[in-house]
């Protein structure tokens, strides 16, 4: 999976933590010239078939030994080229499941990585926010065509920007994670706590970058605004709303809401980053306890492998989250043949999200073609490969394509499972 990162003005601060790998979906929208004469097919071939799986539960049995060996080899080989000391990964299919952990959770102590460790999931949080939004729309408590100024005053173009524009990243609002004053403040002191209004103050001081609906541009501001909408409509804080709408229905007992917990529940992995003024390639910073409140509804959730495997399949099928009609609407929300829909992306039938927060990288994807869920957690957000002017570790394998660690492992697992995550449309037969 090629990682596309937005370009930021950087000094020693490096890139901001929500430069999220979800930008891959921007690339997916750009179709090569040879595909222009093709009839573009929807990313999800038959949403009704996918939502029918909500009535089923995968068996709690191990996958065949031969496949387990293939998956284990894929992880080990990908980890060799990744800038992370530890990986947790799991796969759930109609034939069974597989989970594992590799490497160390704490390079200083040598403590090993373990299945069940908590990590920060970054922008995978956006899919939770989008799911809650869809639930409120399904219940008739709001419409995706509502303008944001019905809920939050003072947003530029707020009378034109709809909740749908915010959810599919076409609002034209700049991301606060690209605002120089925010970057200066955040990297000077990563322990600072932010409120959603603090974040909006950074974001909305500038002008929109394009008219609403004109194009795609990934912005964390969009999801913060949606979080405020959810709070207003439900009358609850974001954690309470997520608990009642998503965590409790799915039994996600090891997942905590996005309202800015600086400490992770035990057990957890340490997280290393090259972001921040103090980090160098020779000495990455430990970002485990950096205050994540700046990510909020755009990236603040903490979770575990088992919870994310349950959630990933529910994100795809709608199981215990959305009715068939609402879920099918979401599965049809992607541009053709691939791209970003209602708070999640789709490439080659794989739907889900990636996430980066300083110290952590996560992927959660569901294959609508094969009813397969894949989750990868990494204890680093450091990219590796041919990454241009990105900071990398001294032993960086420059011959590889640039990728974040969890994304690199997920890419390898998708190949091992026989359905590669690919952004390149199939060329027409000659």
From TrEMBL:
- Signal peptide coordinates: 1-35
The molecular function terms of the Gene Ontology recorded here are:
carboxypeptidase activity
Keywords of the record, alphabetical order, are: Carboxypeptidase, Hydrolase, Protease, Signal
Domain spans labelled Beta-lactamase-related: 72-384
Q: Which Pfam family would be a valid example here? A: Beta-lactamase
Protein name (database record): D-alanyl-D-alanine carboxypeptidase
